[in-house]
Design a protein that fits this description.
The structure is a single chain. By secondary structure, the chain is an all-alpha fold. Helix 2 (about 75-105) packs parallel to helix 4 and helix 5 runs antiparallel to helix 11 (about 295-315). Mean pLDDT is about 80; it is low at about 1-30. Strands 1-2 form a two-stranded parallel sheet. It starts with a strand and ends in a 5-residue tail after the last strand. The chain has a single domain, classed as Growth Hormone, Chain: A, CATH 1.20.1250.20. It has helices at about 35-70, 75-105, 105-130, 135-170, 175-200, 200-205, 205-225, 235-240, 240-255, 260-290, 295-315, 325-340, 345-375, 380-415, 415-435; strands at about 5, 440. It contains 15 helices and 2 strands.
Amino acid sequence: MTQALPHPIDNDPPLAPESAPAPEPPHLPTAPLPDLGRVKRELPAYLAVQAAWFVGFGLQMVLFPYLAANILRVGPDLLGVAQMSLSAPSLVFLLFGGVIAEQWNPRRLMITLHSMAWIPAIVLASMLARDNFAYWMMIAYGLVMGTIGAFILPARDAILSEIIARRMRLGKTLTLQQGVAMASLAQFGAQVVGLGLGGLASVVGPAPLLVGQAFCLGIGALGAKLLCKPPPRPQDDARTPPLKAIGEGLAIVRRSDVLAPMTLSMLAIGVFVIGSFLVVLPILNRDVYHMRSTGLGLMFIAFWTGAFVSSAALTGIAHVARPGRLMLIAQSAGVACISALLLQPPFWLFLVAIFAWGLAAGVSVTTSRAIVQEAAPPTHLARVLSIYQLGFMGGAPIGSILMGFATAKFGPQGAAIIPAIGLAVMIALMATQTPIWRMDRPKPA
């Protein structure tokens, strides 16, 4: 028996049987369309903003652990603490970011935050150039960038459904599933570029690359200016106190058969996957394969290239009948790839395993985002997305600390058994105790 995606605020029977007509396009704005030329340019501009952020993010993924592990020569425990500083602000600010994205103008918010995001990288580059670099500066950088990311992420994710809806009103045949896949494609492709550039740190030095990161983050503001102004927010929402608004979003997620397990699954992935990714891989690169920034860059490039390839494949698929099942199968494949860390294969074979892990991650991330976007009510979309992302981002500092100390005690390969077992348990519970495996998405007419 399959189950249709339920409405997120109740546990009513399925919305429609498989043979029923497709529902109306999601999150359709009622305001008049802006200039048609601007609407046509809006999606490419959005993807450019996405790419600008994630080129900088890809650079950061290599430069940050490289500065800690190879320049400052800190141990895995202090590396875990440093990585935690990047993700810990999400625990405090991400839910507020979701509220602000709904009550304020998300386009203007993206312009403002991109205009601020280049400053920390420039400061860090200046300290390196002056040979005045210290561990506490990395912590400060991580806290500032983590805070900016906590506010920009809900605004960027929530505005996508409005962009897709405006294009659908022009008669464009683009589903939300495909729009999410295109956003993931821009994200993963940009990260591959950033990671490739980051791998040059040991050749050109990290300071020039930090300047490049600042440039990419800054030009994202120009792309955000090309987006259409969103429809006016309801005045009632604008007067809702932030804590009350957060409570309303949490209540919607808690009462949903779809949103609650999806958020918990993101928490597990944040704890088990991100810890491995941010701590175990840099230590494997340094202590097992005895490589510098080039090796770390190749590891990250292999992963995100795999994610890029699978996301590209999903952009051509307008309809996935059972997205929950596809997501759980992809996550199971990821567990098998993480288990390969328990071995010590040749470096090229290790990269193959990471590439396969990336293929699975691309499918998992894209399908899970689409599931949440479809299940969330339009009036609370940014809040729901911020709670969903909080599961992922909130688990990351826990995973960084856990895997940092586990790696220090058992070594990087011995510590890899923790995420493998943890994810396997999570997938089994999702498949047997929630409707995610059985959910059905009606085929568009």
